[in-house]
Amino acid sequence: MKVGIYNRWLATLGGGEKYSLSIAEHLSRQHQVMVLSHQEVPKALASERLKLDLSGVEFRTIPDYSSESLKKVSAGFDLFFNAAFMSYFPARSPWSIFL
Description:
The chain is α/β, with parallel strands linked by helices. Helix content is 29%, strand content 24%. The chain is built from three helices and five strands, in the order βαβαβαββ. A five-stranded parallel β-sheet has the order 3-2-1-4-5, with helices on one face. It is globular and about 35 Å long.
C-alpha cells in the first residue's frame, strides 16, 4: 500500500512530528511510506533527534500548496494522513486519517 503523511510543521521536530513519524516508521515495515512537508528536513536529522528508524521512509519537500492543490497530491496515495495542526482539507485518497 502507498501511504502519504503530510506534516506542514515537520521542521520543528517536536512532539506532533514524533507522533506522525512514529506512524511512518511502523507502516514502512510493510508499506511504501512518503512524508510530505514544505521545508526540507534531512531524514538522518529527524531519525537521530526523534530516535526513530526512518530508513524505509521517503521524505519529500513540496511547494507550499493551497488546500485545493494538497487535495490533488493526496489522490496519489492509498492511505493519506493529514498530520498538520490547523490544516484542514479533504483528502482524495481512498482512505484518509486526520491526526
